[in-house]
Amino acid sequence: MDQRFPEHWRDSVQNYIEKGHPVGGFLYAVFCNDLVDAFNRADSINSRRLHDFAEFLCNYAPQACYGSKNLFELRRQFLFGGCLQLLELLGRNICARQNARRLQCRVGAWRENLVMG
User: Fold this and answer.
1) Does one domain contain both 64 and 74?
2) Domain housing 66
3) Using CA of residue 89, residue 90, residue 91, residue 95, what is the dihedral sign?
4) CA gap 94, 83 in Å, rounded
5) What is the tens place of the pLDDT at every residue in 81-95?
6) Which end of the chain is more exposed for a tag (fewer CB within 10 A), N or C?
């Protein structure tokens, strides 16, 4: 972990990225890409280190671990809470896509019959 980070960040950041462990409100705001909330929650040390943290995220952290609340929660559920909820979410998305394809095929067949008929 980068030595520019305050020591009290290092374990939390590493445990979230590697294992999906929960983080405090400030780090949650940072990982969720909520700059205003991060500044509101930052103490004097953290407010001076936001640039370093953003640089770390952009250059070293996996892209799937930051950027939005949805990405944050999906990563936590996958790593910390197990795969079941993530698989359910993916399953719903796959079913929705399959249903849309079936509907497109039916509409296409209906149009062909209309034109040919």
Assistant:
1) yes
2) 1-82
3) positive
4) 16
5) 655 555 555 555 555
6) C
